[in-house]
Amino acid sequence: MAETQGPRLRTIIARNQRWDLIIGTIGLLATTVGVLVLMLLFVDLVIDGWQRLTPDFFLNFPSRRPEEAGILSAWVGSALVMVVTAFTAVPLGVAAAIYLEEYAPKNWITELIEINVTNLAAVPSIIYGLLALGLFVYILGFGHSILTAGLTLGLMILPIVIVATREALRAIPVAIREAAYALGATRWQVVSDHLVPYASGGIYTGVIIGLSRAIGETAPVITIGALTFIAFLPPIPFTGDPPAGPFDWLFSPFTVLPIQMFNWLSRPQTAFHVNAAATGIVIIVATLLMNGIAIWLRSRIRSKLKW
């Protein structure tokens, strides 16, 4: 009996190894194709738009003359919207994840919340734009402003922050919790002094990846009324006559890099298409930098923490 089981077992192992090789090869090919397509598109953008990446391009306002047009109002608007998005999504998302993972009782209500959080991460971004148009613009009266855009994108990336934070907390060994409780620590002391510091690498990664997704979104900000042409900056606090308030910029009209790129692509002149290509380079580089920072932070924090 043992003599017949040996060859059969080796046959099963060999067949499984062949399938592992086939699946691994298919995955490698799929990844290679995706990376090559992205690289080709990026190289095409660089060839078309690199000559416009000058200091004047970043310091000039949009113009009807393509050789003088710049992205000053667009990149400033994107930066301010990202600030509001981060201040909205990060505290709320991290707090919600900590509650769901460490405090919430395991019942059908929390299971329903978890299912909805997971599903919200896959909702099309235009749905968030329609929600914000009704809630923030018409009901709360925030108008077509930076505050509305930041809150909209904050809601959009909120599920990403929650899921990433919960996964980071789950990755911490149970022994750390048990050791802290054995020494008399309260639940909040365990969370604040042990779990959050150990999970900070995963939390930072989720936050930055969420922000890198938000910076390239177009549908939600178009839905809430972002301008396609704007030749002024939001008011600087405590400047002007009369002086602007510290939060007046939150209610200023705005535009962002993807909308500026879309505006130039809709023009028939080739020179505007070159400007659009240069704007695309800026968006892609910003996204890659944010993802690179996330990877660097995660590796650096993990190298300092020893379980």
TrEMBL record:
Keyword S-adenosyl-L-methionine applies: no
SUPFAM superfamilies from the UniProt entry: MetI-like
Domain ABC transmembrane type-1: 75-294
Main localization, broad class: membrane
Protein topology in the membrane: Multi-pass membrane protein
Keyword line: Cell membrane, Membrane, Transmembrane, Transmembrane helix, Transport
Segments traversing the membrane: 21-43, 72-100, 120-140, 146-164, 221-240, 277-297
InterPro entries tied to this protein: MetI-like, MetI-like_sf, Phosphate_PstA
Compartments reported by the entry: Cell inner membrane; Cell membrane
The organism's place on the tree of life at top rank: Bacteria
Keyword Transmembrane helix annotated: yes
Classification via PANTHER family: PHOSPHATE TRANSPORT SYSTEM PERMEASE PROTEIN PSTA, PHOSPHATE TRANSPORT SYSTEM PERMEASE PROTEIN PSTA-RELATED
Family: Belongs to the binding-protein-dependent transport system permease family. CysTW subfamily.
Protein name per Swiss-Prot or TrEMBL: Phosphate transport system permease protein PstA
Gene name per UniProt: pstA
